């Protein structure tokens, strides 16, 4: 287990302010602090599997009073004992018991595992799923999502305005943003004191055999496309994709790139096994003592991960209560203080002054307007494009 697997525990002042927020949901502060002092509350945080969940028909999945949530590792605040302060607060305030599964590593694989059950309206074992932007569009097109009622989630009126009207769900009928991330060029500070400023810098001979990239089509090829003058959010086709993929393939073949991983690639930079690379901004920001990062001068990409309810669940009302709870600015700030990714909630920056004051000016948690202007959300791919591009990208990096 690497250092990346250990995030900060929630500071005591933040725990007490979270307790203050519990009173807004009808729970006494004393009762909440008593629950928070317990081992792990009712939530199950990791290592669980959905295999024993019963098969059901449309809208019949799940059990009243329980909410099964599938998400990524390191995407929800945790204390040293593995419990989540915000989940404990939610459970105490609402009576909903959350079973939290870190079951999503590669989203394409996860989608493949649940698609046949979604098609036949069988329970997939989850009532709430964390999905990337492009996958929300895929699920909504396939009629795999239950609609969400914004009126039942009044706190979502605090959604940051730049996250409205996005192509994958313009009216947020099917989803609400959970976290936003950016792609950056990054470096090990001891190995590269001057840092790098562009994707082209990564191909310098001095970094031969010392480059690592994330193994995600959009987050790796997006910055490469920007370096070639193509906006990933704009109008482009096979020719532009082929040009970017050829750059990646050549750098792999020449031994410039030695690794393509998911979030774990930041460990290579942190430990000095790689000198530079294309990384997730939140990961390298967490390692600010050893790693530097920058949005490339030519621009890069961002993504939005979202909370959705599969059409097979009967627990949509519980999903809406959870979403509304996590759109409280102090709760949102607590999550981002752990994940190091951008919160979608207005007011979270002010709340961060009490949660983790040293992160108030963190520029990957709170994205400035000038930074957002230099970032693109990768455009929607057609079904044919997605299948062909995914296959070719995997062929280029799978052996690394």
Radius of gyration: 21 Å
> Which whole number gives the mean pLDDT?
88
Which percent bin holds the helix content?
A: 25-40%
Low-confidence stretches are: 1-6, 26-35, 38-42, 49-55
Distance between the termini: 21 Å
- One letter per element, helices H and strands E, the order comes to HHEHEHEHEEHHEHEHEEHHHHEH
Number of strands: 10
% residues in beta strands:
5-15%
Number of helices: 14
Quaternary: single chain
Shape: globular
Class by helix and strand content?
Answer: alpha/beta
Describe the structure.
With about 400 residues, the chain is α/β, with parallel strands linked by helices. It contains 14 helices and ten strands. It has helices spanning about 10-20, 30-35, 85-95, 105-120, 135-140, 215-225, 240-255, 265-270, 280-285, 315-325, 330-340, 350-355, 370, 385-395; strands at about 65-70, 95-100, 130, 175-190, 210-215, 255-260, 275-280, 290-295, 300-310, 375. Strands 1, 2, 3, 4, 5, 6, 7, 8, 9 and 10 form a ten-stranded mixed β-sheet that branches. Strand 1 (about 65-70), helix 3 (about 85-95) and strand 2 form a beta-alpha-beta unit. The longest helix is centred in the middle third of the chain and has 16 residues, at about 240-255. The radius of gyration is 21 Å and the shape is globular.
Summarize the structure in short.
By secondary structure, this protein is an alpha/beta fold.
């Amino acid at each position: 287990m690497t250092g990346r697997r250990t995030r900060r525990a929630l500071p005591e002042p933040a725990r007490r302010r979270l307790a203050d927020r519990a009173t807004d949901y009808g729970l006494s502060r004393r009762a909440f602090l008593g629950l928070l002092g317990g081992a792990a509350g009712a939530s199950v945080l990791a290592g669980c599997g959905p295999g024993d969940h019963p098969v059901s028909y449309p809208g019949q999945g799940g059990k009243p009073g329980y909410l099964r949530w599938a998400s990524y590792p390191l995407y929800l605040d945790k204390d040293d004992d593995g419990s989540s302060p915000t989940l404990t607060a939610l459970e105490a305030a609402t009576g909903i018991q959350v079973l939290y599964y870190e079951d999503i590593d590669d989203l394409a694989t996860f989608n493949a595992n649940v698609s046949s059950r979604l098609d036949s309206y069988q329970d997939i074992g989850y009532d709430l799923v964390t999905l990337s932007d492009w996958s929300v569009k895929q699920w909504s097109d396939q009629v795999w999502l239950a609609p969400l009622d914004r009126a039942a989630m009044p706190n979502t009126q605090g959604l940051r305005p730049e996250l409205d009207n996005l192509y994958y769900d313009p009216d947020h009928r099917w989803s609400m943003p959970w976290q936003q991330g950016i792609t950056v060029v990054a470096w090990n500070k001891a190995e590269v004191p001057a840092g790098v400023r562009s994707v082209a810098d990564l191909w310098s001979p001095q970094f031969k055999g010392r480059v690592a990239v994330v193994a995600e089509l959009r987050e790796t090829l997006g910055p490469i496309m920007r370096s070639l003058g193509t906006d990933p959010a704009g109008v482009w086709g096979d020719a532009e994709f082929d040009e970017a993929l050829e750059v990646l393939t050549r750098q792999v073949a020449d031994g410039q790139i030695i690794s393509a991983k998911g979030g774990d690639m930041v460990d290579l930079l942190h430990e000095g096994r790689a000198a530079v690379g294309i990384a997730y901004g939140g990961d390298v920001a967490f390692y600010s003592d050893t790693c530097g990062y920058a949005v490339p001068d030519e621009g890069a990409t961002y993504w939005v991960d979202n909370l959705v309810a599969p059409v097979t669940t009967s627990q949509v009302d519980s999903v809406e209560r959870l979403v509304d709870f996590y759109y409280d600015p102090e709760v949102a700030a607590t999550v981002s203080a752990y994940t190091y990714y951008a919160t979608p909630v207005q007011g979270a920056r002010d709340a961060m002054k009490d949660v983790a004051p040293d992160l108030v000016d963190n520029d990957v948690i709170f994205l400035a307007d000038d930074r957002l202007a230099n970032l693109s959300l990768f455009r929607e791919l057609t079904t044919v494009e997605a299948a062909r591009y995914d296959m070719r990208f995997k062929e280029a990096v799978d052996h690394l």
